Amino acid sequence: DGHSHLSAYERKRLKNISENAKFFAALKIHESAARLNQIVTKRQSRVTKRPRPKKVEDEAAPRRSMRLLRVEPSGIPVPQAPAQPEAEEYPRVPAGPVPMVPEDQAGDRKWTEALLSTWMRISEVLVVVTSSFGVKSYQESLSSMVLSEENVRKVVKSRVCSMAIHPSESTILVAAGDKWGHVGLWNVSCGSEEGAHTFIPHNLSVSCMHFSPCNPAHLLSLSEDTLRCGDVTRAVFDEICRSEEGFSSFDFLEESGSTALVGHWAGHVAVVDRRTPGVSWELSADIGFRRTRTVHVHPVDKQYFLAAGLVDVGVFDVRYLRAKGNQAVSSLPGHTKSVASAYFSPLTGSRVVTVCADDKLRRNVSLSAFPCRYNCNTGRWLTRFRAIWDPKQEQCFVVGSMAQPRQINVFQESGKLLHSFCSLQGLSSVCSINVVHPTRHVLVGGNSSGRLHVF
Length: 455
Known about the structure:
Layout: H1 8-27, H2 29-46, E1 98-99, H3 109-124, H4 135-143, E2 152-154, E3 160-165, E4 173-178, E5 183-187, E6 196-199, E7 206-211, E8 218-223, E9 226-231, E10 236-242, E11 247-252, E12 259-264, E13 269-273, E14 283-285, E15 294-297, E16 304-308, E17 313-317, E18 330-331, E19 339-344, E20 351-356, E21 360-365, E22 368-373, E23 388-389, E24 396-400, E25 407-412, E26 417-422, E27 433-436, E28 443-446, E29 451-454
């Protein structure tokens, strides 16, 4: 019908197509496909696409201040100003005498004058009697010592590297030296906030301090470049000796305090006479050490001194010192790592206590060493431990501790722990540096934030 001009094959083909179309229409496949296509389209429309970032050239250039561009409003460039040196946090201390003026001089001067006048007054009367106590009575005295809230004070700005205590029996006066050359004085007995003042006599770390044995109105302090004497009678820090090689420690060679033995970080030692004009030493001697950390003069036989180096500890005779070729009278072997300190016992000098980085404390008696295990790993942020003898007790020494709760330990020469100074409220840090009063039962511990604790 209407396709008579087509061949039989083509008419058969058209008939098949028509029947197939009717069949698919009955199945409603197109409607299902359209509905599925509509569902898929809706789901795709709900998907949020991340916007493409703008190209750099499309962004507008940010506005910049003409002052920051160093351009005047007229468009003329501003001439380059000469570079200014950066201001130092602490000004350099000049060579020569330095006035004894506290850093906080903007405050009330009367409190500083009161501190210095107290120091001068207590130095006029000096009676030092050293005696040894029985172990039992000594241990009882240690147990009676406490730390009160008012006896904790920040005295210097930074890490405490050295301390000294005035020998007066009536007043507790403590001096502390820190990492940045500050020297703090604290009259603990006054009990007021104005009892502590800080001075700046040095440029570098104050590694060693001592009151003069015959005139405690003089406080000698040693930094890496200078040895100074703080004379309270003249209110000045005099310069005794100066060096660019780096001082490490010192000790008095005689009771008058006129001569001193000074150790250098480079290994040698020097003899200094305070009565000689100038700021140089009398003698410099190479003792064969690569480092000399501490020097200590024998309490009885003043011609002998003890030196502690990297792994070397030896006793030398100052009478036979020469520029080179010096030999130790006696050596204390056994140290396998860096030695932090070595000190004679206070009354007879027959004992030596050393602290070593191999985590051992050694007590040397009659050239025989008795090591005991002890955690000396203070790290880079804490001052290294120094074990010191109690001046009143020939057989007992004091050392800081890394243990928790924080504490300061007292040991007998046998290695027996006699007492641990603790205070959960007052002592919450490691006290690397400690000092003991020569006649009274007073212990002072200094930490790495400049805080002192007085038991």
